[in-house]
Every structure is written in structure tokens, then in C-alpha cells.
Amino acid sequence: xxxxxxxxxxxxxxxxxxxxxxxxxxxxxxxxxxxxxxxxxxxxxxxxxxxxxxxxxxxxxxxxxxxxxxxxxxxxxxxxxxxxxxxxxxxxxxxxxxxxxxxxxxxxxxxxxxxxxxxxxxxxxxxxxxxxxxxxxxxxxxxxxxxxxxxxxxxxxxxxxxxxxxxxxxxxxxxxxxxxxxxxxxxxxxxxxxxxxxxxxx
Length: 202
Known about the structure:
By secondary structure, the chain is an alpha+beta fold. It is built from six helices and six strands; from the N terminus they run ααααβββααβββ. A four-stranded antiparallel β-sheet has the order 1-4-5-6.
């Protein structure tokens, strides 16, 4: 797979993330009704978990062998830490690096600073993934405890953290010397675009 094909694949996965986030917002706004609060949380949990999986696996798309290796073992990892450990073993720099919009310097170059806070961190990724897994799994019918859904934060807050992570982010791809600057909503067409840069270039 060449560089442009990898970029196209990554952008396609990020478009999938955007579609799922939009669907979740339809649940939280009440636009989509599924009959009960429990069902709504289950539907939201499925979509949130898929969003997190897309974030984790997308960084391997530039290396088909690593992606296949990670994905083949995916079914074994319903706990987020195990999932992240497995992907991190294949590609330690897999996690997106959220960036602020570029600022032009007097010499015409553009500088980007990292976002300091407010985005979905790796520890929060683990918390949210595991919370979604708890909701998705069928409750033991013989349990005497009352079912309780605790997402720690509101779903809207989780969505804010996810979008803050991805709006403009830097990706270090497995098997590539370049980095990609990814814009989730390019002004020209509203779609995901990735720009290839070589940090080692003079």
C-alpha cells in the first residue's frame, strides 16, 4: 500500500468516526427514540466503543501486516487496557496528538502547538471503553444487585473529549517516516483531509 492509499484509508476511517459521533448525538438529543433509557445507553455504548476502536486501529492502516495482526486478536480484548497494550506493542506512537490551529510566523512558516487539556487522554480512553463494554454485555439474570449505568461523565462530555482529540491531530503512522496532520472538517468541503509532512526534512 503506497502513501496516498494509506492516507485515503485513514481518512475513510475518520469519516466513519464522524458518522458515528453524529449518530450518537441523535440519541442524546432525543431525535432517535429506541423505547427506553436502557436501550438508548446500549445503542450509544456500541457506537462509542466502535469510535474508540477506530481511533486505536486507524494508526496501523499504513502497515497492513501490523493492522491485520492487531485486528485478528481484537475479539480477545474486550478490556481497553489489553486492547491498547496490544496495539501499543505493535506501534508505540499510535495515539493521536491533538493540535491547535496553525499560526503563521513573519517568515511565512506556520507553527502548531499541542492542545494542553480537554481532550480524550489514553487513561480516559480505557475508562470509557470499559464502561461501554459493561453496558453492552448482558447482565447476569441471577444478580441481586440493581442494574446501574455509570459513565463517569455525560455522553455529551465524552463526545466533546473525543472531538477535541481529533479535530486537528497529528498522527505518527506505523511503518512510515512521515507524520500526518489530519483535519476532521476541512473548510473547503467539510470532509477529513490529511497532509503529509516529514519531520526530518531540513
